[in-house]
Design brief:
Blueprint: H1 4-27, E1 30-32, E2 38-42, H2 44-69, H3 73-82, H4 93-96, H5 101-123, H6 127-147, E3 148-152
Parallel strand pairs: 2-3
Antiparallel strand pairs: 1-2
Helix pairs in contact: 2-3, 2-6, 3-5, 5-6
């Protein structure tokens, strides 16, 4: 029995650690929102950080629409590249622990897809083809806003 006790304790501690990792790394600091979305609980400055990122995406989409309406693929490529992976602003560590893994994946995926859009704009001769890809990228935005909302911690 003595030899089994340490292994039982190791098993219990492992389960506790796995539970904590899931809660703080995968799940983040979230509650069920009143509107059916997942509410990510943040401090005011953290919420502002994320909203600034989202406004940058929105500005990029508007500028891309203008460039594509003018059939200016070179400008579209430059605009898209500016919101690609090089534009990723790493959130402060404590804030990262509050964000669900799926939320972070959507954001990084969107940055990566803007790089893909820039590559397409550099090689395509069709504004409509690039616009179709932009429409596809917008599904990340729609999906994120349908699934999540940002709330202030009490």
């Amino acid at each position: 029995m003595r030899n089994k006790l340490p292994w039982i304790l190791v098993g219990i501690l492992s389960l506790i650690i796995i539970g904590l990792l899931f809660n703080f790394v995968v799940r983040g600091s979230v509650v069920n929102g009143t509107d059916g979305r997942t509410a990510i609980m943040l401090e005011t400055g953290e919420k502002d950080f994320i909203l600034t990122e989202m406004r940058a995406f929105l500005s990029t989409v508007q500028q891309l629409n203008q460039a594509l309406a003018n059939e200016d693929l070179a400008t579209a490529a430059t605009i898209a590249r500016a919101s690609g992976m090089d534009a990723v602003n790493m959130a402060p560590g404590p804030m990262m622990a509050k964000l669900p893994a799926s939320f972070m994946q959507l954001g990084l995926s969107t940055h990566g897809r803007f790089d893909d859009l820039a590559d397409l704009a550099e090689t395509s001769d069709s504004s409509l083809e690039v616009l179709a890809e932009l429409s596809s990228i917008m599904q990340n935005c729609v999906g994120c806003h349908a699934a999540y909302r940002l709330d202030i911690e009490p």
